C-alpha cells in the first residue's frame, strides 16, 4: 500500500506514554506453571493495555500439556505477556509474564535477560509444577518472592506447610494473593521491591 503525505500512522495512546517523571525502570518477570494466573496478574495490575500472546488451545496439546485444574481454560500464552506499572513517580516496573507450558520454557532465556527479580505464582491444586520453576530461578540466581494465588476451588494450607513443601528458605517472602485484584497484585510487586532493596542494602 502506498501512503500519501496526508496519511497519518496512529501512535501510542496518551495513557501508554511513559510518565515524564520516571527516572528508573526495572524489569520483573512473573513465572509459574500453566494456568496459575500470570496473564491475569499482568492484566489486573498494568496501567497500560497489556500485550498478550495468547493462542487458542487445540487437541494437539492433549497428552502433552498438563492442564489439570484448568479444564475450562481455552487459551494459553505462547510467548509472553507484557505490562507496565508505576510504583512511584520515579520508578516504573516493566512486567513480563512467561509462558507456563513446559514446551515453551525455552523462551524463558530471553525473558530473564536483564530481569532484576521475579514473582513465582503458585496454584495449590498443582503445587508440584512450581518445583522446576523455582529451581530454574535458583540456578540463574534471580531473586524471587512466592505468591500463592487464591483459586476458589483450591485447597488451603498453612503458609508454613507450603514453605516446607516448596523447600523455601525463611528469607524468601511468601504471601497469599488474588491475581484478579489490582491491589493484591500490586502488593505482591511491592513485596518483591522491598525484598530486592533489602538484598541490595545487605550487599552494600
From TrEMBL:
This is ATP/GTP-binding protein. Keywords: GTP-binding, Hydrolase, Nucleotide-binding. The keyword Hydrolase applies. It comes from Streptomyces tauricus. Coiled coil: none annotated. Belongs to the GPN-loop GTPase family. The keyword Nucleotide-binding applies.
Amino acid at each position: 500500500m502506498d501512503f500519501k503525505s496526508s496519511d497519518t500512522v496512529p501512535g501510542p495512546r496518551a495513557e501508554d506514554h511513559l510518565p515524564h517523571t520516571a527516572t528508573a525502570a526495572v524489569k520483573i518477570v512473573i513465572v509459574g506453571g500453566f494456568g496459575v494466573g500470570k496473564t491475569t496478574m499482568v492484566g489486573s495490575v498494568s496501567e497500560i493495555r497489556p500485550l498478550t500472546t495468547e493462542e487458542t488451545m487445540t487437541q494437539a496439546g492433549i497428552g502433552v500439556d498438563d492442564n489439570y485444574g484448568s479444564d475450562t481454560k481455552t487459551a494459553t500464552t505462547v510467548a509472553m505477556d507484557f505490562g507496565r506499572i508505576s510504583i512511584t513517580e520515579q520508578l516504573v516496573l516493566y512486567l513480563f509474564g512467561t509462558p507456563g507450558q513446559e514446551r515453551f520454557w525455552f523462551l524463558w532465556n530471553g525473558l530473564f535477560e536483564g530481569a532484576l527479580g521475579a514473582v513465582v505464582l503458585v496454584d495449590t491444586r498443582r503445587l508440584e509444577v512450581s518445583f522446576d520453576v523455582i529451581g530454574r530461578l535458583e540456578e540463574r540466581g534471580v531473586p524471587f518472592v512466592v505468591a500463592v494465588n487464591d483459586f476458589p476451588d483450591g485447597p488451603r494450607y498453612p503458609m508454613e506447610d507450603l514453605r516446607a513443601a516448596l523447600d523455601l528458605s525463611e528469607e524468601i517472602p511468601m504471601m497469599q494473593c488474588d491475581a484478579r485484584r489490582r491491589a493484591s497484585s500490586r502488593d505482591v510487586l511491592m513485596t518483591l521491591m522491598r525484598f530486592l532493596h533489602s538484598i541490595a542494602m545487605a550487599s552494600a
